[in-house]
Amino acid sequence: MRAAASALPTLSALTTGDKRVLARALAAIETDAGSKALAALLDAACAAARAHVLGLTGPPGVGKSTLASALVTRARARGETIGVIAVDPSSRRTGGALLGDRARITTDPNDTGVFIRSMAARDRLGGLSNETIAAMVLMRAIYDRVLIESVGIGQSEADISFAADTVVLCVQPGSGDSLQFMKAGVMELPEVIAVTKADMGAAALRARSDVEGALSLASEHGWRAPVVAVAATRTEGLDDLEAAISRHREFLGEHDRLAQRRDAQERSWIEETIRARFGTDGLAAARRLALPATGAFTKELLIAGDLSRRLGAPA
Ligand SMILES: Nc1nc2c(ncn2[C@@H]2O[C@H](COP(=O)(O)OP(=O)(O)OP(=O)(O)O)[C@@H](O)[C@H]2O)c(=O)[nH]1
Ligand SMILES: [Mg+2]
Description:
Layout: H1 11-14, H2 19-31, H3 36-47, E1 52-58, H4 64-77, E2 82-88, E3 93-94, E4 97-98, E5 114-120, H5 130-142, E6 145-151, H6 157-160, E7 166-171, H7 177-184, E8 192-195, H8 202-214, E9 227-229, H9 238-253, H10 257-287, H11 296-311
Parallel strand pairs: 1-6, 1-7, 2-5, 2-6, 7-8, 8-9
Antiparallel strand pairs: 3-4
Helix pairs in contact: 2-5, 3-5, 3-11, 10-11
Guanosine-5'-triphosphate binds at residues 60-66, 102, 104, 151, 196-197, 199-200, 231-233.
């Protein structure tokens, strides 16, 4: 059923925390794509951002969902509200059913302080779709925390850094893949590295020292990624992980770093979308446009409208 644009909730209705209102807004991300009203709502939500956005990434099976579950439980125990997005590379819509749901995060269905949504990935591994970005923006205006789980190995971690304030890369004892990328400098450095399944004894210890060795010289923009060992199934190492995440959050709070990071993210959302629709020439033309000061989502609409008028590309 197509929701009419008028069914779009207002920001103040959204921020009451009523899950049905959020569900309605999430549906509108697809049904109302390209509408001014949706862009205005998303821009208002961007301006009302309140959550810290944590990105959990790493190869399939590394323990991301188990860790996410543990972090959700701890956040709720502290009285914090949390929205979770599980980006699922394997999900395919077949006959209306979303297959291969990787959220596997169990919570109390009556708890109004937690909202979990699985979303399909873009074609690339770990790739975030426009819908995922929009869902994050909505949840960020509602909850105290947002957590995005996304599969990624190697370069694709960069994708989650377009949405998250703090990226935690999960690596597993005995698997050298992420490590190889890091050593080769191919990988965008995460802000925190979690060696999962630390209950696996010597292999976990070795993994941790391997990662620390690989990172010994790496430090990006004044932040050196801490390496933390966690055993989510035994709820071990979670204090250390949360402390590392908090330290990065404090780091972002200094010198306007958070605002700069989010500005850069918004620019990359616009560029990605314009490039995907109008190519590199379109992007170059967009850079020459004089645009009024608006939020990123409205700006993207204005650019797309202008380019499709001038280039005759589909609006
Ligand atoms: N021994 C041990 N096993 C764990 C731990 N955390 C997760 N696992 C197991 O690892 C397997 C994968 O865990 P998930 O949390 O589903 O991993 P994931 O990274 O979310 O997997 P995908 O979403 O499929 O990529 C499960 O069988 C978990 O029980 C841990 O701390 N210790
Ligand atoms: Mg998972």
